[in-house]
TrEMBL record:
Sequence similarity: Belongs to the HAD-like hydrolase superfamily. CbbY/CbbZ/Gph/YieH family.
UniProt xrefs under SUPFAM superfamilies: HAD-like
A Gene Ontology molecular function term of the record: hydrolase activity
Organism: Fodinicola feengrottensis
PANTHER family according to UniProt: 6-PHOSPHOGLUCONATE PHOSPHATASE, HEXITOL PHOSPHATASE B
Protein name in the entry: Beta-phosphoglucomutase family hydrolase
InterPro entries named in the record: Beta-PGM-like, HAD-like_sf, HAD-SF_hydro_IA, HAD_sf, PGP-like_dom2
Lineage: Bacteria, Bacillati, Actinomycetota, Actinomycetes, Mycobacteriales
Gene3D superfamilies, A to Z: HAD superfamily/HAD-like (3.40.50.1000), Putative phosphatase, domain 2 (1.10.150.240)
Amino acid sequence: MTSRGLGLPDHIQACLFDLDGVLTQTAKVHAAAWKQMFDDFLRGWADQHGQRFVGFDQVDDYDRYVDGKPRDDGTRSFLASRGIELPDGGPNDSPDAPTVHGLGVRKNDLVLAKIHQDGVEPYDGSVRYLRATAAAGLRRAVVSSSTNCKDVLVAAGIDGLLDVRVDGVVARERGLAGKPAPDTYWAAAKELGVPPSRAAVYEDALAGVESGRAGQFGFVIGVDRVGQAAELSKHGADVVVNDLAELIEGP
């Protein structure tokens, strides 16, 4: 087995891919849904507390507080940045409930509506790279915090290019900590039958890169879709590319 021509050290035997922003063009869909949900909430909060409304920044706030994290963790993280604390509530909360779970349900409903309306596009370079890794005999997993991961993979037409899926549904069922903890990546490597030291992690989120480094994986690739190459390197990426196709040698 060789990983030559794929931008990887020769000892790498498996590739662990994040979904949104790495394989599929859904990060912008999530960012837009977070903004719509938080802006609606923040307007009401500002009115109730006599404060000035300051909206959710779809780039800075998204990258800093929610990108790559489980939905509830991202919600808490951003609210804490604004000095707001809400009760967690429960998984059966309605999207109108003033709870962490309620806000998460509202955001998820928005994401699903946008996906069903507009569809899902994979990155062409990522599809080429997935096929190249398969041809090289490398095992492949998707590791995502999203509970919609399976639907997105099917909608994008790339579900057949991956051997293992560890997503938000699996993490909840197994009680796995979300990114930046390395637990979901460890679980994927275990299912593929390789130690972390022989697996590569592909991430566009700072929290995801941190999880790859914390898990002592053999190689961490940062995928810079939004101009944060320096931050990806700072958080632990061994190499940073704009697109996975850059890692493929030759025509």
